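Researcher: We're teaching a course module on how sequence relates to structure. For the next exercise, students receive a sequence and then see the predicted structure as tokens, so they can try to spot secondary structure elements on their own. Here is the exercise chain.
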Amino acid sequence: MPPPQSWLCDLDGVLVKEGSMVPGADRFVEALEHSGRSFLILTNNSMFTPRDLSARLAAIGLKIPETQLWTSALATAMFAHAQRPQGSAYVIGEAGLHTALHDVGYVMTNRNPDYVILGETRNYSFEAITTAVRLIEKGSRFLATNPDPTGPSLDGSIPACGAVAAMIQRATGVEPYFVGKPNPLMIREGLNVLGAHAAETVMIGDRMDTDVLAGIESGLQTILVLSGVTQREEVARFSYQPARIVDSVADLIGEFEGSAT
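Model: And here is the predicted structure for the students to work with:
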């Protein structure tokens, strides 16, 4: 494989863990920027706009421009727009998802929308879920930003988009289309944003079942870091394997030595 010219990197478990920066993540991002190689930070979290997320990361010492952040909300909005331009949606989620859909020209409504779109929120409402179920029963298509069943918090795991999607699916019999990882669609859209080629791009992640799987299915080199969910002893259980395993992104800083532009 040729040396990677573009880098895709997961956020939670790779650069950030439990609200704090992974040691060495700031130096890794700085080295990546100084190398002159194109890069994009990916996250399945759809709650925040890139601007808000950039500010939150800066508060813990990670300086990442909003233009280098690619969320499942952006990927979902791009997918919906490509399928049904200027469409309509009933949305359960936070500002990140609402803003992304608004920016592609979507109308948010609960009257016969083209889509019911489910994203991440810390305040899932039974009333909103009931509305989603009834709209899907009437014919609205079902999209979800990501399949993650749980998300991290300082107090432990919390129910996430995948768990709520499963409840709606059980109630309606309609399976959602998940846009976020491990769907390679999110990776390909990220490559398009960078203008990068899969054969010259590497994907860094902490989960075998989302990050590494999405990278492999997209034709990318893959690196698993052990600073997040998947542990070394679990890797052998999977039928697919990453190209490399490292303890954290701090071990990759040497990749960029002598390559600054």
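Model: If you want an answer key for the exercise: DSSP finds eight helices and 15 strands in the chain. The first strand starts at residue 6 and ends at 10.
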